[in-house]
Design a protein that fits this description.
alpha/beta, 2 domains, two-stranded antiparallel sheet, 7 helices, 7 strands, globular
Length: about 200
Amino acid sequence: MNQTIQDKSARRLEPATTRDTTSTHGLIARLKGFLPDSLFNSALLFGVLPIGTALGRSISKLIALPQLRRLATGPIPWAPLRKPLSECTVALVSTGGVHLRSDRPFNINGDPTFRVIPKASLHKDLAISHQAYDTTDALRDINLVFPIERLRELEAEGVIGRLAEDHYGFGLMGSAKRLMPSIREVARTLNQSGVDLALLVPA
């Protein structure tokens, strides 16, 4: 991963504050009215907007919720576990931009692809390519966004049956529609490999 990009990204992000957010919705409306839809919905905005603040969270919802409503047609399927957790095979799916250092980094301005992360991967083997959140703590402890070590402990203790051989990392992507082919491919692979439970860890 390009550390220079990571450093610049971290410097751009400001910590969450308790600032007055009474004008948040008005500001969002003005931004949306001023900017073309393609630019407003672009992941590039995450590099300049105050992600992690109330304004940043509101803008994220404004962008994401309409997309989710368009994609969520019909009732949400419910898939109850068919066996005890202690007998389940568990996989991790992270949207925090985690990938192997040896893999091609995610495009931090928007990337609909995914990366496969083997179960034996160590913290030193992993990197993060993401600009929509401050990755400082995650780089110190990868388990905050990709808790592979915690799952290995649960496997050793018998809390879960088995850790899947492969796990999956996604990066930043502003378009849910463009993500769907990758999501379907990962879902098919999880099903074919006998995974009973996928733990989704957002950024």
